[in-house]
Amino acid sequence: MPLVQLRNISKSYTLGEVDIPALKDISLEIGKGNLVTFVGPSGSGKTTLLNIIGCMDKPTSGSVLIDDTRTDALDRNGAARFRGENLGFIFQSFNLIPVLSVLENVEYPLIMIRKESAATRKEKVMRLLEAVGMADQAEKRPDQISGGQRQRVAVARALVTNPMLVLADEPTANLDRKTAQDVIALMREMRDQYGTTFIFSTHDPRIVEHADVIHGIEDGRIVDHSSFLEGVHHG
Ligand code: ADP
Ligand code: MG
Prior knowledge:
alpha/beta, Rossmann fold, binds magnesium ion
């Protein structure tokens, strides 16, 4: 059974008396353990779609099923609990807490869900920092490491609660191309190691090559992605 099932998802934003359609009748399935990307230009609906899958927002119509839960039917508290227990997030601007160390940033989601002792937390954090190659930077603050390193820390933070699904909205938009490719490759490694399903969005067709499944998105609809990949040469 697929991990995520979207059925006839439409989403409109209302601005005054005007309805702005952002997603138009999207139906698709995402298999467990896949690294999936949505690629499309600015304004195509990527953030709206990831917010809906991430239980941050609800569709205007249609249904979202994640691992047997109708997440579009959850109330505010239910959605917050579902996110905390099942989902991880990686952001374009990294969103690390500047006054906390690398170690404390990765530990933070574990403190929020209040399930583990301090010793277990520390052990999990160090295992993840090891996995993303940042263990030797554990005591640094975010402003003492590079953008690529910050995003590696953010990948560790997203995984520390052992979520089934990690959502990353344009995680490489603030990185140079080489670093961007490294971060996507890291997600792939983490997928291989932990079996976590990853979904990331991007407007850059050059970084989608590590994904298992590529969905083009244009004007709120899923389209054939090959139009975005034309003219992209590797080398
Ligand atoms: P992307 O992430 O691909 O740039 P978005 O999902 O942010 O696309 O936006 C899709 C469409 O929805 C765009 O036309 C955008 O202007 C519109 N939109 C996004 N967020 C809002 C909002 N909060 N209010 C009104 N319109 C919005
Ligand atoms: Mg966006």
